[in-house]
Design goal:
Layout: H1 12-16, E1 44-46, H2 62-79, E2 83-90, E3 94-104, E4 109-110, E5 117-118, H3 123-136, H4 161-165, H5 178-186, H6 194-202, H7 218-232, H8 236-245, E6 269-270, E7 279-280, H9 290-293, E8 296-297, H10 299-311, H11 317-323, E9 327-328, E10 334-336, E11 341-343, E12 346-353, E13 356-363, E14 368-374, H12 385-397
Antiparallel strand pairs: 1-3, 2-3, 2-14, 3-4, 5-8, 6-7, 9-10, 10-11, 11-12, 12-13, 13-14
Helix pairs in contact: 2-12, 3-7, 3-8, 6-7
Length: about 400
């Protein structure tokens, strides 16, 4: 959960999965869904406000919808974001479901509100939930050392599972290693194993003693994926499906086995390339992200996941309380817990990997939900585009709780 730093831009993939703002990837051409039959002007496509069954009474006021339309369109224009899906659900006020811009720059196919997209580090919320379910089952303990389950981890006798979950292990993130970045960008279709990923991080000394500081590290969540597999005897993909996404009724949220991205989907665009030029990264293989960031979802699944995650639907009250015990990150108003953040009262996670960004947050105080999916990860004025968009939205709907991760000056 580090702040994005322009000086790290050359270490492209090093910040990619860092939920990409908080320090705090397909070979088959699949068709984009057709646009909605009727579309509002200025590149905005809207689902019928209030069509979500949780909000049968209708949508937001015309004035509020107009403000949101203008704010989102301004961010897309200024930040050069090709397209975005935005969902806002405000109990007692209504809902706002909009698609902006294009899903495919080559064809001009418009973004719609039902396209599958890669969600990057939001994957960590699913991995963490699976681990915490094992805690509830008595199969693992939060204060167990990682060496109890996985051999060869530097200082593994002192690093607890809790330290991995809350980004306080001190392990160097493999995705910040220059050799890893070059390997990924040289061959985005390469299939990385978890052990191969961890080896890139293990080349470096640990950054600090476990439990003493916060530093976002993707290595932590690769290790947690291995713990899940060892203690269940099943793949992390199957465990997350059977124990997390299926019980939460998330029918379009998947952990891919390869580069597949199911129809309908939006193309993703990144400048995390060897040339530094923007390229279509839609079908890059996400094996390099694995249990730290490989998953796929859509706007409506994430809306439901936001509440399940924040309220602990799948966990015991005691374990959910452990999850929500966020600790300081060094960013004012931002804390990180067990695979979850709290930023100015908004609970959830963000995600980023080449070509895509996501933001899924829930405000318990108002039972409000915001989900944003973008088909680019290109920085804007030193910040993640999802952060810029999240700030613009929450400044309008919850001015006392503005989602923001300030750029380090």
């Amino acid at each position: 959960m580090r702040k994005p730093s322009p000086s790290r831009r050359s270490a492209a993939a090093g910040r990619t999965l860092a939920a990409a703002t908080l320090v705090v990837a397909g070979l088959l051409p699949l068709a984009v869904a057709p646009a909605h039959a009727s579309a509002p002007p200025v590149g905005v496509r809207a689902a019928a406000d209030g069509d979500d069954h949780d909000f049968p009474s209708g949508g937001l006021s015309p004035e509020l919808r107009a403000k949101l339309d203008q704010a989102v369109q301004q961010v897309l224009q200024e930040a050069g974001i090709p397209g975005a899906q935005v969902g806002i659900w405000l109990p007692g006020k209504g809902s706002y479901i909009r698609a902006f811009g294009v899903a495919d720059k080559a064809t001009g196919a418009p973004m719609t509100d039902n396209l599958n997209m890669r969600i990057g580090s939001e994957t960590k919320t699913f991995t963490a939930t699976a681990v915490l379910e094992l805690v509830d089952d008595g199969l693992v303990g939060l204060d167990d050392p990682i060496s109890k389950y996985i051999d060869g981890v530097p200082n593994g006798d002192c690093i607890k599972l809790r330290d991995l979950l809350d980004m306080r292990s001190g392990l160097f993130s493999y995705s910040a290693d220059d050799d890893f970045v070059h390997a990924l960008l040289s061959d985005p279709n390469h299939v990385f194993t978890p052990q191969e990923l961890l080896a890139y991080g293990y080349k470096h000394d640990n950054v600090f003693e476990p439990g003493t500081q916060f530093q976002y590290s993707n290595s932590n969540y690769i290790l947690l994926g291995l713990v899940i597999e060892k203690m269940t005897g099943r793949s992390v993909r199957d465990v997350i499906h059977q124990r997390v996404t299926e019980p939460s009724h998330l029918e379009r949220t998947i952990f891919p086995v390869g580069p597949e991205l199911p129809r309908p989907y939006a193309h993703g665009y990144t400048n995390q390339t060897l040339s530094g030029q923007i390229e279509d990264s839609t079908h890059w293989n996400p094996s390099w992200a694995w249990s730290a960031g490989a998953m796929i979802s859509d706007l409506h699944d994430l809306k439901h996941w936001a509440k399940d995650l924040a309220t602990g639907t799948l966990l015991s009250p005691a374990t959910q309380a452990e999850r929500l015990n966020v600790l300081p990150t060094g960013i004012p108003g931002a804390g990180y817990g067990l695979g979850i953040f709290n930023i100015q009262g908004w609970i959830g996670h963000n995600g980023s990997l080449p070509g895509y960004e996501s933001l899924t947050i829930y405000l318990p105080e108002e039972h409000a939900t915001v989900v944003a999916l973008l088909n680019t990860d290109v920085f804007y004025q030193g910040n993640e585009p999802s952060t810029v968009l999240g700030k613009a939205i929450t400044s309008i709907i919850t001015p006392n709780h503005i989602y923001d991760i300030p750029v380090e000056k």
